[in-house]
Amino acid sequence: MKAFVTTTLVAALLLLTPGSAPADQPAADPSCTGQIHPNPGFERGTDGWEAGPRIVVLGDTTRPARTGRAYATFAGLDVTRSDLLRTTVTVPANCDLTVRFWVRTITTETSRGDYLNVGLAVTGIPPKTRFSLAFDGGPEWRQYTMSTGIAATERTATVSFLASESAGNGVTAFDVDNVTFRLS
């Protein structure tokens, strides 16, 4: 009988140990850690992205990706046009989203006329252009960072890359790679 009481007491204590919860309690809020976009490096083309008709995903050995095999490019055509690449993710309550991305600029342009505007729109905050990059960004990959800040409610965050090119001023291609979406 003493063994039965001891076993029952141990089992009861295990159930009451902090960190164990009855099965009928709701699950905890999602963790504010980790990468949340399914295709940050364009390895699966434009899956998970809304892409304009002239957005190309390349795996070019003469112009290699920053990492992996692919990257998105706003291919320079020396025509007056604009193209949009964007995606939307959900940011859980009490989390901050940090977006990091890499851009490389290949150009024959000699004066400002071609741009890559990078925007971040967050629920409850007016959309804002965070970066306006021009033809003089350089042929080496450069990293940029932006974040949403923390809010008490769940929000959506839309990241957009809008390239504008002017005809007759040279050709500019903006390459984008490794667009990470990390919660903290």
Helix and strand arrangement:
Elements: H1 2-16, E1 34-35, E2 50-51, E3 55-58, E4 71-74, E5 81-91, E6 97-107, E7 115-122, E8 125-134, E9 142-147, E10 155-165, E11 172-183
Antiparallel strand pairs: 1-11, 2-5, 3-4, 4-11, 5-10, 6-9, 6-11, 7-8, 7-10
Task: Give a concise summary.
The chain has one helix spanning 2-16; strands spanning 34-35, 50-51, 55-58, 71-74, 81-91, 97-107, 115-122, 125-134, 142-147, 155-165, 172-183. With 184 residues, the chain is mostly beta strands.
Could you describe the 3D structure shown?
The chain has 184 residues and is mostly beta strands. Helix content is 8%, strand content 44%. The protein has one helix at residues 2-16; strands at 34-35, 50-51, 55-58, 71-74, 81-91, 97-107, 115-122, 125-134, 142-147, 155-165, 172-183. Strands 1, 3, 4, 6, 9 and 11 form a six-stranded antiparallel beta sheet that branches. It starts with a helix and ends with a strand. 23% of the residues are buried.
Largest sheet: 6 strands, antiparallel
Global structural class = mainly beta
Number of helices: 1
| Global Rg | 24 Å
Relative strand content: 35-45%
Instruction: Please give the number of β-strands.
Output: 11
Write down the overall geometry.
Answer: globular
The arrangement of helices and strands along the chain is HEEEEEEEEEEE
Low-confidence stretches: 1-22
Q: What do the pLDDT scores average to?
A: 83
| First-last Cα distance | 52 Å
What percentage of residues falls in helices of 4 or more residues? under 10%
Keywords:
single chain, 184 residues, mainly beta, 6-stranded antiparallel beta sheet, 5-stranded antiparallel beta sheet, disordered N terminus
